[in-house]
TrEMBL record:
<protein>
    <recommendedName>
        <fullName>serine C-palmitoyltransferase</fullName>
        <ecNumber>2.3.1.50</ecNumber>
    </recommendedName>
</protein>
<dbReference type="InterPro" id="IPR001917">
    <property type="entry name" value="Aminotrans_II_pyridoxalP_BS"/>
</dbReference>
<dbReference type="GO" id="GO:0006665">
    <property type="term" value="P:sphingolipid metabolic process"/>
</dbReference>
<keyword id="KW-0663">Pyridoxal phosphate</keyword>
<feature type="transmembrane region" description="Helical">
    <location>
        <begin position="184"/>
        <end position="202"/>
    </location>
</feature>
<comment type="similarity">
    <text>Belongs to the class-II pyridoxal-phosphate-dependent aminotransferase family.</text>
</comment>
<dbReference type="InterPro" id="IPR015421">
    <property type="entry name" value="PyrdxlP-dep_Trfase_major"/>
</dbReference>
<comment type="pathway">
    <text>Lipid metabolism; sphingolipid metabolism.</text>
</comment>
<keyword id="KW-0732">Signal</keyword>
<dbReference type="InterPro" id="IPR004839">
    <property type="entry name" value="Aminotransferase_I/II_large"/>
</dbReference>
<dbReference type="InterPro" id="IPR015424">
    <property type="entry name" value="PyrdxlP-dep_Trfase"/>
</dbReference>
<dbReference type="InterPro" id="IPR015422">
    <property type="entry name" value="PyrdxlP-dep_Trfase_small"/>
</dbReference>
<dbReference type="Pfam" id="PF00155">
    <property type="entry name" value="Aminotran_1_2"/>
</dbReference>
<dbReference type="GO" id="GO:0004758">
    <property type="term" value="F:serine C-palmitoyltransferase activity"/>
</dbReference>
<feature type="domain" description="Aminotransferase class I/classII large">
    <location>
        <begin position="282"/>
        <end position="640"/>
    </location>
</feature>
<keyword id="KW-0812">Transmembrane</keyword>
<dbReference type="GO" id="GO:0005789">
    <property type="term" value="C:endoplasmic reticulum membrane"/>
</dbReference>
Length: 669
């Protein structure tokens, strides 16, 4: 009875795994199939398992080796593995098939479907040398002999002599990573580490003396642990507070091309800051007001005011209760058609869109592979989902493929069962780097391995693409290839909230299950109206060409500003067409110096440092808007150039301008 039950389970498992094992066949020069030959119970707790593996050479390899790949894992699952887990090298002529058997004994756990086998193989190179590669570990599948035979026959028909994909990708990875590396000048790296080291040592000394004084004066809380603990607290008290005047600057006007920054003073060495009644009118290089909709707009603003009168600032209800107004349904239809998906759902906050949706889409037994520089909302959503999270090198499709292959081969932690679902999460434009996602390549990798693509277009929707439809339009990717399209309304649309667009089935599912839809108050009606109206302007449905002008404006402004900064000798990250452009500062002392000197000259910039960036990579992040005039941009460039000279952040030799070249020529003559 027990045996019959077990055979039933094995048969079901065989059916489940037979299909997935085909996936491995396409790239390796070998086609490998496993079959369980025998399972013998030696005593109540020990079983002997005999496994045979069929290896079929598709033609491009010359030698191979078979091992039970991960002994430590096998130990874990089987408790004890007895017997040889390795097999020797052998020659296998193109187009031929051999079978290998190996045997091991294990304490019974009835988990046979995960044991991995690793095929190491050699291929000839152009120079005649042999190079060794490994297939990803292939999960052991329990198949009946007839299944395996049929499968090999089918795979033989698919015979291909294409060279193995690994070789190609390995080289690609190296070049891609090399070209992406930020090269920090040696001296800058040294002084940056030295500065942080000095701040750290002084901070620790001050904390040490503070603790002694506290003990003396009995001022510490008796019996309680400090409520703020750890490095973050130390970082805030001893490093951040020194330069806190560069952050959280109060603003007293809309975030237009120019805005009013409230002046503050400190009487206690920057520990606290008091607002004054003075404001300085500054050129705004920090807001995400890419299309200029954040300030009063002749088309949007009257309609927003009207919606405020007709509805109210808040629906005071969640979507499923009384929070779905006619504006919300119109907004979702407009967003879906704007981004090119069948349906969409909107949320009150972009951050929440990521952090609440990921846990609904995936959970335990699932795998999220996330770009290493993804936004914090994605990081928190991924963590909160309970799925396994792996990271791939920023914007490097070849590394994504490597991670995917390894993870597919390894399967879930401990059990090594296949992943229930795999989601790859990337951004359209990376908010700290200004870099465009390599979406076509990433989508190709995802399709190959049947992983879902989740694209966060917070900074790209509305800002790039011929009609503002984001990176898919800009890079020529069919939106049907992107499974989950996420974006926010806080940038190009001058409003607030976020959206998820996808298939009708997905959106319906999210509406039934996502807590941010079920339990959070819906998007404020005037904010929804602002998004509807700005989309209408972008698409020219307001009867004017302002939308097209704005799109052309943001592109021209961004490319002009970026190229001028580069000519001046700044190290500017990011790609052409991206309105986000970080200027590298590196050294912690240069962060406040750059920010304060710009503000003195009425240019407001945002500076970003650790923990938002890696320790060495502090930067000023410039955000360009279609609302900036050429005169604004020239003023900004003049100020940034003189501050750059003063602070010493022009890390590259400046390109001589035409006039200087002429002068040089005259002098030489
Ligand atoms: C990539 C990315 N995703 C999500 C968000 C969160 O969006 P919001 O600020 O609209 O809440 C941001 C914020 O800047 C972002 O940069």
């Amino acid at each position: 009875m027990e045996n019959a039950f077990r055979s039933g389970i094995l048969a079901v498992l065989a059916l489940i795994f037979i299909s997935s094992s085909f996936a491995n066949a396409s790239d390796s020069p070998f086609i490998v199939a496993h079959k369980r030959v025998a399972l013998k119970k030696l005593n109540p707790i020990v079983e002997r398992i005999s496994v045979s593996i069929d290896v079929y050479n598709r033609g491009s390899a010359t030698a191979y080796d078979v091992t039970l790949a991960d002994d430590s894992w096998a130990q874990d699952v089987f408790d004890s593995v007895i017997g040889n887990t390795s097999m020797s090298w052998g020659r296998l002529d193109a187009g031929s098939l051999v079978s290998h058997s190996f045997e091991f004994e294990s304490k019974v756990k009835t988990v046979y479907y995960g044991a991995p086998a690793l095929i190491t193989y050699r291929v000839p190179t152009k120079s005649g040398l042999q190079e060794a590669y490994s297939t990803p570990t292939l999960p052991l599948k329990i198949l009946s002999d007839s299944d395996t035979g049929k499968k090999i026959e089918k795979l033989k028909r698919l015979q291909s002599s294409a060279p193995p994909a690994f070789h190609h990708h390995r080289n690609q990875t190296l070049t891609a990573v090399r070209s992406k590396m930020i090269t920090i000048p040696y001296l800058t790296a040294l002084t940056t580490y030295f500065s942080y080291g000095l701040l750290f040592v002084f901070g620790q000394l001050r904390d040490f003396f503070r603790r002694i004084i506290d003990l003396w004066s009995h001022s510490s809380l008796q019996g309680y642990a400090p409520i703020c603990l750890g490095l973050e607290d130390f970082y805030i008290r001893r490093l951040y507070l020194r330069i806190q005047d560069c952050f959280n600057r109060p603003i007293s006007s809309p975030p237009d091309a120019w805005f009013d920054v409230v002046e503050r003073v400190s009487k206690d060495n920057n520990k606290t800051l008091q607002r004054t009644k003075n404001v300085s009118r500054c050129l705004n290089l920090g807001s995400y007001n890419y299309l200029g909709f954040a300030a009063a707009d002749e088309y949007c603003t009257p309609r927003v005011i009207e919606s405020l009168k007709r509805f109210s600032p808040s629906t005071c209800s969640s979507r499923v209760d009384g929070g779905t107004t006619t504006l919300h349904t119109e907004l979702e239809e407009r967003v879906a058609s704007f981004v090119g998906k069948p349906a969409a759902v909107v949320f009150g906050m972009g951050y929440v869109t990521n952090s609440a949706i990921l846990p609904v889409l995936i959970g335990k037994g699932g795998l999220i592979i996330s770009d290493s520089l993804n936004h914090n909302s994605i990081v928190n959503g991924a963590r909160g989902s309970g799925a396994t999270v792996r990271v791939f090198q920023h914007n490097t499709p070849s590394h994504l493929e490597k991670v995917l292959r390894e993870q597919i081969a390894d399967g879930q932690p401990r059990t090594h069962r296949p992943w229930k679902k795999i989601i790859i999460v990337v951004e359209g434009i990376y908010s700290m780097e200004g870099e465009l996602c390599k979406l076509p390549e990433i989508v190709a990798v995802c399709k190959k391995y049947k992983a879902y693509v989740y694209l966060d277009e917070a900074h790209s929707i509305g800002a790039v693409g011929k009609t503002g439809r984001g990176v898919c339009e800009l890079l020529g990717v069919d939106t049907a290839e992107v499974d989950v399209m996420m974006g926010t309304f806080t940038k190009s649309f001058g409003s607030c909230g976020g959206y998820i667009a996808g298939s009708k089935e997905l959106i319906q599912y999210l509406k039934y299950t996502c807590p941010a839809h079920l339990y959070a108050t819906s998007v404020s009606p005037p904010a929804a109206q602002q998004i509807i109206s700005s989309i209408k302007v972008i698409l020219g449905e307001d009867g004017s060409s302002r939308g097209a002008q704005k799109l052309a404006g943001i592109r021209e402004n961004s490319n002009f500003f970026r190229s001028e900064l580069q000519k001046m000798g700044f190290e500017v990250l990011g790609d052409n067409d991206s309105p986000v452009m970080p200027i590298m500062l590196y050294n912690p002392s240069k962060i406040p110096a750059f920010s304060r000197e710009c503000l003195k000259r009425n240019v407001a910039v945002v500076t970003v440092a650790f923990p938002a960036t890696p320790l060495l990579l502090a930067r000023a992040r410039i955000c360009i808007s279609a609302a900036h005039t050429r005169k604004d941009l020239i003023k900004a460039l003049e100020v940034i150039s003189s501050v750059g000279d003063l602070v010493g952040v022009k890390y590259f030799p400046a390109e001589p301008n035409k006039q200087q070249l002429e002068e040089g020529r005259v002098k030489m003559e």
